[in-house]
Amino acid sequence: MRVLGIETSCDETGVAIYDTSHTGGSGLLADALYSQIAMHAEYGGVVPELASRDHTRKLLPLIEQVLHDAKLTRNDLDGIAYTAGPGLVGALMVGASTAHGMARALDIPVLGVHHMEGHLLAPMLEDDAPDFPFVALLVSGGHTQLVEVQALGHYQLLGESVDDAAGEAFDKAAKMLGLAYPGGPHVAKLAEQGDPKRFRFPRPMTDRPGLDFSFSGLKTHTLTAIRQLEAAGELDTQAKADVARAFEEAVVDTLVIKCRRALDQTGLKRLVVAGGVSANQRLRERLAVETEKRNARSYYPRGRFCTDNGAMIAYVGAQRLAAGERDDNGVMKATPRWPLDTLTPT
Ligand code: ATP
Ligand code: MG
Ligand code: FE
């Protein structure tokens, strides 16, 4: 089954085609991405109305592009999957209405899928994809969650952030340091020049049991540190790098501690890390050491599938459409809030 996947939940328009007659990454026939980052950077964050309009402008040309790249025509498609949530409602509706319009015209099935299930299963597009079951750490701009995954659709939430997401914390710290949006990669780059011994920031919620996270206190701590340096006339490039380093270490250490706990608690030996923050090299280095100690292994999507993309949506949609799932009563779905653990297996 050849499935067109459409991602428009936030600030990237992603389109891909996945073919279920292949396995793993070889089923990915084409994928294309248009990032709106440059447009939103001017405002220091995503402007929802601009995002919707830009998805409208870019989606159809990207669909033409992936069909061309895969040497297919619309008539070769057997189904369409789109991100139905969570995300910005206007942005979601662009993908949902385009998917439904096309599916109606082509008389093929259509299904709205969960954006975080896409992130969670993105490592399935790699050659060394993990087998089930595994623990997943989802770390993105809007989510920080630990999930026990028994099979596709079998998701048990082990813990999550009670306030800011890890990616959001990176973005806010970047803003305080005068770095561009989205801040994660910029903070990470600056942190490379930082002295890890100069500051030590708190590791929130690690001194008590449990798998929940909190990053808003760390944000305040970062702001206070910057203000103090500024007041002392010491906020030079090196000091900013030292703050970035302390901030990154605190976030990474917190994530590592909770992953360790989740592996011990579940007894599982596979850890999947996905979502934008999974691109962070320091996090990957630290988790490599921790998993090795436990005779476990960590799995990641390739770099460009860590952040939003159409490939992960085409993959998840293809699995579910091939199992016979369809949108209820043929009605399009755009659900800004949609808890991952309400999903069901195929
Ligand atoms: P969600 O998936 O929760 O709806 P989102 O789609 O906006 O949120 P993603 O696109 O998966 O999130 O990831 C974007 C986030 O990842 C941003 O917050 C960005 O700062 C962060 N990020 C990207 N690269 C890095 C990195 N190298 N280090 C830390 N954070 C990073
Ligand atoms: Mg994004
Ligand atoms: Fe995302």
From TrEMBL:
Fe cation binds at H115, H119, D308. GO terms for biological process: tRNA threonylcarbamoyladenosine modification. Required for the formation of a threonylcarbamoyl group on adenosine at position 37 (t(6)A37) in tRNAs that read codons beginning with adenine. Is involved in the transfer of the threonylcarbamoyl moiety of threonylcarbamoyl-AMP (TC-AMP) to the N6 group of A37, together with TsaE and TsaB. TsaD likely plays a direct catalytic role in this reaction. Keywords: Acyltransferase, Cytoplasm, Iron, Metal-binding, Transferase, tRNA processing. This is tRNA N6-adenosine threonylcarbamoyltransferase. GO terms for cellular component: cytoplasm. Transmembrane segments: none annotated. It comes from Halomonas qinghailakensis. It holds the Pfam family TsaD. It is found in: Cytoplasm. Its main location: cytoplasm. It comes from the Bacteria. The keyword Transferase applies. Substrate binds at L138, V139, S140, G141, G142, D171, G184, N280. One of its GO terms (molecular function) is tRNA N(6)-L-threonylcarbamoyladenine synthase activity. Binds 1 Fe(2+) ion per subunit. Its cofactor is Fe(2+). Its EC number is 2.3.1.234. It catalyses: L-threonylcarbamoyladenylate + adenosine(37) in tRNA = N(6)-L-threonylcarbamoyladenosine(37) in tRNA + AMP + H(+).
